[in-house]
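> agent: user asked for a holo structure of the chain below bound to flavin-adenine dinucleotide. Plan: (1) validate sequence alphabet, (2) canonicalize SMILES, (3) run complex prediction with ligand conditioning, (4) return tokens. Step 1... ok. Step 2... ok. Step 3 dispatched.
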Amino acid sequence: MASSAWDSDIVILAAGSWSSRITVAGAEPAPVKPIRGQLLQLLGPRGLLQRVIWGAAGYLVPWPDGTVLVGATVEDVGFDENVTQEARHHLLDMAVTLVPGLKDAGISDMRAGLRPRGPDELPLIGHSQVVPGLIYATGHYRNGVLLAPLTAQIVRRLVFEPGYVPIAALAPERCGRL
Ligand SMILES: Cc1cc2nc3c(=O)[nH]c(=O)nc-3n(C[C@H](O)[C@H](O)[C@H](O)COP(=O)(O)OP(=O)(O)OC[C@H]3O[C@@H](n4cnc5c(N)ncnc54)[C@H](O)[C@@H]3O)c2cc1C
């Protein structure tokens, strides 16, 4: 594949689970690791669930198309995005324990994704203290969808408002020479 290079005054490192693989001269690799999550989509009896159900081991979400989303595993297995039989059984058992009416439900889909987890499970959002022009927006772990609008707002302010100081608890330098 042909490679290209762009010059920019500002670069935003927002590569999720792959953030540690991006080499930045002068900075340590971002200490973000992938945590696999597997999900099942069940074809349960239509209308069985009316709302989200949380249990100690997972959750069930009724979708508008009548299927039920069953989530999710939390696995420290590196960059492996495969689905497994073990997770299939675990998620099915968990779903049936929460809602016995799902006992005979079929499986319409199973998928896996990687959650980007930092050392303290909080995102890293802010200017690099060692590389001028570099901004981190990574490590959102289990809440990256929920936090996307807020993260976008913070990054916009970091880019366009000189002197803007974001949330101290998210400062990237708490996690190393970043
Ligand atoms: C099973 C599961 C359930 C989840 N449920 C929820 C939930 O209910 N609510 C919630 O808020 N969050 C949830 N999450 C977490 C959420 O998906 C993540 O926090 C979020 O995706 C992180 O967003 P991101 O943009 O930082 O990283 P990603 O979504 O991983 O995006 C990073 C992107 O960077 C790209 N990339 C990597 N390397 C490079 C490179 N060198 N150059 C260019 N591009 C690159 C990747 O291809 C990818 O597209 C869940 C995750 C999983 C796996």
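> agent: step 4 complete. Summary for user: Residues 11-32+119-175 form one domain. The pocket of flavin-adenine dinucleotide is lined by residues 14-18, 22, 37, 39, 71-72, 113, 115-116, 138, 140-146 (CB under 6 Å).
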